[in-house]
Task: structure prediction
Amino acid sequence: MSFHETHQTVEATVRRVPRIGVFMGIGVVLGVIAAGILTMVGSFEPSEAADVVYPPGQVFGFLLLWTAPIGLALGAVVSLILERVARRHDRVVRVEHETIIEAD
Result:
């Protein structure tokens, strides 16, 4: 068996970027927490216009329909802003690219 090796020095850009999925997940969790806080703070007395009282679970579900997507979107926006800021701190490094071809 013979080996054929080639060495090549190339330039590569190194930068740290945030993971958008993590920020979106954190946004959803914060949206769930906000819905819970708003549910606990809310009043569950009958309204004067109609004698309807919504149970806390239903209020939490309705608030969750609004706060979770808002948290998701805000997490994505924060991630994109941090990615733009990280782009300013790019570094160009030299790396050695090695290819080994094994001949039979």
Remarks:
- The two ends are 5 Å apart (CA to CA).
